Amino acid sequence: MEKAIKRYFPIFLLPTLVAFMIGFVVPFLMGIWLSFCEFTTVTDATFVGLSNYVKALQDTIFRHAFWYTALFAVVSLVIINVIAFAIALALTQKIRGTNIFRTVFFMPNLIGGIVLGYIWQLIFNGILSVYSTALNLNEWYGFAGLLILVAWQQIGYMMIIYIAGLQAIPGDVVEAAAIDGATGPQRLFRVTIPMMMPSITICTFLTVVNGFKLFDQNLSLTAGEPAKMSEMLALNIYYTFYGRTGWEGVGQAKAVIFFVLVVIIGMFQLKATRSKEVQQ
Amino acid sequence: MKKKLLSLGMAAALSLSLLSGCGGDTTPSGDASPSGGGDAPSGGKVYYLNFKPEQDAQWQELAELYTEETGVEVTVLTAASGNYETTLKSEMAKTDAPTLFQVNGPVGLAAWKDYCYDLSGSQVAGELTSDEFALMDGDKMAGIGYVIETYGIIYNKALLEEAGYTADDIKSFDDLKKVAEDITARKDELGFSAFTSAGMDGSSDWRFKTHLANLPIYYEYKADGIDTTDAIKGTYLDNYRQIWDLYINNATCEPTLLSTKTGDDAVAEFVTGQAVFYQNGTWAYNDVAELGDDNLGMLPIYIGVEGEEKQGLCTGTENYWCVNAKASEADIQATLDFMYWCVTSEVGTKAMCGGEGAMPSGQAGMGFVIPFKGNQESTNPLVNISNQYVADGYESVSWNFSTMPSEEWKNGVGSALTTYAADQSDANWDAVVTAFVDGWAAEAAAVNG
Asked: Which residues make beta-bridge pairs with B155?
């Protein structure tokens, strides 16, 4: 059996590999090439060297979007993971109806970002209109709004991962700690959390990357208003690409810069949390 | 260790499924791509990328009829509202690219001029009633306008009379201001407001950041005797402020709430009789038709410029047909034939100009006014009103917003207008002026440089 798999592995691998090439590798390489070009359609480009990158880095809105996004990613990372972990802890206790609660918390994740954005926009503006203001009049309203939206959407997802992690902790370890006289907080911080590091790695990685890549929620909730002040990186790239004729390449250059940034931050974050993981 | 590998693998799978929604280069879904094969006798085929979603059904039917009649394959694809450029960019990159597409004027042409076939001397160009509807790129006729549209302030005659006025009382900005402010003062007694909400939501803000902004640009171009510029001076921006103030302070809602109001809100307010005036154009007829044809009128948008008593409605086009120069010879010929057929044949002109029951299938026609010799009498009362203005010797305001340097510029002005509506301070108006004047220069430089 093992031998057969070894011999025929290309047959199993090929469909995925082809899909991966078409869906990822080719567009990715083309994207990098296009960032050095001026073009209207992607198959008809002329090479212009680094000028797209120069324009991209000179763009003050792009720099603003970077700091705004970075701040958002950090704040959402903390909020989502702390709350998701707390809920996961609560829902692994022996209380009635945990399955229903898990389902309820997970459900927001099943709704698409654009729809969520519009629904929450109605809610926020409904409340803000009482105070004669609106979400798209202040960048920090937009920031808070996005934070609430994203937390609501992603906490359930992270919660599921944490619950899986919590259930995988051997009961005897926690029990032994309790018998040795560890208090509740001690058991949590000295036993449970170290044992949970693999889950924490996954969840923090996902939230930080999601925070950076946030697009549809941003588009439908604030669309960057007021005056692009609540525009995050992905949305800024989109607007650069379609907002002006001749700036498609600049949008592409920004996308490449964006990719490099997310990879660096993702790697750094993975390294930081992986180093704290313990072997079971 | 194995467990960890497994968990990492799962994480990768999870993240992929979670993030897959955010992928970049997806083409618009639900699009029927042009089917290959089935070559027509001449070998050419037509692929039209339509700009107007509201006329999709009619174009599909026309395409089918044309295929039945001539055997030439015609595919029509309609881009979703507001997504034309996006769709065009991805469709043009395909092997079977559109042979017939649209640009919105000089600025749109700048992006696509390499793709525009020279239409001068073609049969369809010969059908134009006036050269001003041709979009020129130097000596090359890059595009042909195929529909003329008009906008102004649509009003509800019955309500205006209820307030004690008729359209004859409004001949200038001062008249309009007087009437609007009088209605606002008696709002509780009358039970309606002067203007529908000037919503700055994305579904409605183009009425102000683009269409209303056309007026100060028009007067400045006229005063300076130019038809485009890289540096707008903003001579008439005080007038722009006047009219904007009038719109937002005499509307159905508080100015602070405008940022969330949508186009549908304004339509609903207008057709339910909550407001007298509604700025929009001939294309909006179907939305407001339930008020009754006799009840609808349209006024010029007065902004308080010297000599405006002769000003008419804003008439022009931002819909130019272009033929893809990179298509094959046979496809280009087939496309030209199709265009010619649309604007000359009985079925084609009836479908383009007609109203109720104009399509052979009994559906309503497109209701266009077309700048071709085959143009037919319109059943759209708003169009007839605009024709009456021209016949009465009023000078139409041309559409200069196609010279606005970029979408970015419009968005900048729109944002500033929204902020100003929420807090009408001089400082906030200065921000509008900055977005208008400095933004224009900056965007023009960015696009050209």
From this structure: B277, B297
